[in-house]
Amino acid sequence: MSNKYLVVKSSDLHIKSEQLGKLNLLILLSYKYKILRILSMFFKFFKGIELPSNCYQQKIRLIHPHGVIINTRAEIGNNVTVYQNVTVGSKQFGKKQGAPKIGNDVVIYPNAILIGDIFIGNNSIVGAGAVVVSSFPDNSIIAGNPASKVGVIE
């Protein structure tokens, strides 16, 4: 007679309390990321925003958030303000492959595009319609297509 059920005796369980704590932590983290994923899908469907789950852990202000697309590999600092139709995307071919890294306290105005393995320094401003394909230091004012440094924030 074959047994359909797995029988586990208490003597067979050799889980230490610290391993059980790590297991509980992993279960809680998996629920956290499932909730973040559901939030991401909600915003994508109802608001037209594509935000990866790692963006929900920073302080990001979205002003008129329609059409905002942020790549999942992009690294975004705290207190970043993003206006409508901003694209933060990765580059898969050629030079500077990768996704942008955006520092803290950066303001990105409407229709700006940030592409490739670039770094936008802390306390910088990216002007409306700028196409940023190269890195810029802290306290920069960036504008144009292709973007260039047009000023310094003092």
How would you describe this protein?
The chain has 154 residues and is an alpha/beta fold. The chain has one domain (22-152): Hexapeptide repeat proteins (UDP N-Acetylglucosamine Acyltransferase, domain 1, 3 Solenoid). Helices cover 20% and strands 23% of the residues. The protein contains one helix and 13 strands. The strands form three sheets. The chain has a six-stranded mixed sheet, with no helix packed on it. A four-stranded parallel sheet has the order 2-5-8-11, with no helix packed on it. It has a three-stranded parallel sheet with strand order 3-6-9, with no helix packed on it. The protein is globular and about 45 Å long. The termini are far apart. The relative contact order is 0.10. Mean pLDDT is 76; it is low at 3-21.
